Every structure is written in structure tokens, then in C-alpha cells.
Amino acid sequence: MMLFRVLTTILILLVVVTASGQSPTQRIQTEGELATELCRDGRSQQSRDLLLSANPSLVTNRLWRELMTKAVAASNGPSPNTSLAIFDVAIDVARRQNSPKLLATTYYRLGSTHSALNQIPLAIDAYEKSRANFELAGLQRDLIYILADLGALFFIQEEYQKAKDYSEQSITLADKLKAIVLPKNWTAV
Length: 189
Known about the structure:
The protein is globular, with a radius of gyration of 22 Å. 75% of the residues lie in helices and 0% in strands. By secondary structure, the protein is mainly alpha-helical. The protein folds into 2 domains: 32-98, no CATH class; 100-181, Tetratricopeptide repeat domain (Serine Threonine Protein Phosphatase 5, Tetratricopeptide repeat, Alpha Horseshoe), CATH 1.25.40. The chain contains 9 helices and no strands.
């Protein structure tokens, strides 16, 4: 009976190690190492989930920043589509952090990448998710940019009423925040 338990434990360990892509001697110790493993080509969503679950102490803001750095670099490189998969991993990390601000920022950069790839409907979807998370986080100043970008994308799509609505919302919010932040007697030079 004891031998059966030992063999079962070894089998489970081998399955977990194989699924996570690590050898028993290869231990992930830093956020940078985890980011590199998460971004490895051909890694499945299930494999990434296992890696994140196996390393909860490394699922931090630093890991998110490492992933964002890799995603932005990939979006500016020879294969910008690679960045889309990395942004998805950064979204997973932001969700695990339960951070609307990180989610909003990630969706914003994802939307920018889709826009640069001329994937306008996907850019709009990402920007809408960014907008919702910036609202949830209470970051109104960031909403100005999201609303303006949505206005521009809807203009490109020739959906002029939506373009106008988003652009007006952006301007109204900017005026509102300017009135809150700047003293009444302040004038631009």
C-alpha cells in the first residue's frame, strides 16, 4: 500500500512538472524567469495557468511589468502578433492581482497594438474593456485618452455618431477635470 502511494506521488509530480515545462531541477525563482517561461512559444493557456498557480508568490506587479515590457517590445518588433499572446498573459496576471488599474492599462496597450495592426474592431473591444476598468479604478484622467481614441477609431469605421459621442465625452471630461485641478485664476501662458 505504501509503495502504491509513493508511485502515485511520483507520477503526479512527473505530470505536473511535464505540464509546466520545468524539470525537477529547474526552479523558477524570479518574476523575470517566470515571465520568460510564460512567454515561451507554443505554451498553452493550461500550461500558463499551471505555471501561475505553481508560483503564486511571483504573481506580482513586477511580473506584470516584465510581461508588459516584453509585449511592447514584441509589438514594435518584426512579429507584432507575438505581443498579442503576451498581452493575454499580462491580463491573466492583472486579474490574479485583482487590479482594475493593471487590467485597464493592459487593455489600453492591447488596443493600441490592435489599432497599429489595423484590427479596428479588436482595438475597439480592448479600449472598451480598458474604459470599464479605468472607470472601476476611478482613474478619470486616463479615461480622457480612452474616450478620444474610441472617437478616432469609430471615425475610421465611419460610425460618425459614435465618433462624435466619444469625442464629446472626452472633451467634457477634460474640461471637468481641468476645472477641478486648476485654480480659478490660473491662465495658460
